[in-house]
Amino acid sequence: MLLLIEDNPADVVLLKEALKESPVPVQLSTVPDGTEALAFLHHQGRYHQAPRPDLIVLDLNLPQLTGQAVLAQVKNDEQLKQIPVVVLTSSTEPGDVAQSYELGANAYVHKPLELEEFFAMVHELIGFWYQRVVLPSAVATSC
Asked: Which of 13, 69, 93, 122 is most buried, with most CB under 10 Å away?
């Protein structure tokens, strides 16, 4: 299951459309901000039965709680830190890149502006993380 933390509804729709064409079926959950993301990950409130994500795709520019604040909390939490986090953002600031990796991001990806490039990026991302990488959730279910 992929958790997308993204406040831009248009980007959410684009990612959903790209996933429809993905050769790998992926269950998607979305939350619009950092506060909701942490509630989802900690099974709080309406998220009390939320599934544990295999992968988190995180925007940096979020309302309420920034993406980097979410990243820091995820990577400092013993129950969550093994979940890979891919930062997917429009920011090209070197400081954002450096800080994201310092906080434990597993990858930093710029959002492509062109539709075709966006779809290709999503397919590459899904192919890599769901076909090439052994995710912690796969190891836990095989034991």
From this structure: 122
**Cross-strand bridge partners of residue 85:** 56
Q: Kindly provide the residue ranges of all beta strands, DSSP E only, lying in 6-45, ordered along the sequence.
A: 28-31
What is the separation, in whole angstroms, between the first and last Cα of the chain? 19
In the sheet that 55-58 helps form, which strands lie side by side, from edge to edge? 28-31, 2-5, 55-58, 85-89, 107-110
Work out the angle between the directed axes of helices 94-102 and 67-75 (0-180°, nearest 10): 20
- Rounded CA gap, 6 and 70, in Å? 12
pLDDT tens-place string over residues 89-126: 999 999 999 999 999 999 999 999 999 999 999 999 99
Query: What domains lie within the chain, and their CATH numbers?
Result: 2-133 (3.40.50.2300)
Distance (Å) of CA 15 to CA 3, 7, 25, 27, 72: 11, 13, 13, 12, 24
Give per-residue pLDDT as tens, 53-95. 999 999 999 998 999 999 999 999 999 999 999 999 999 999 9
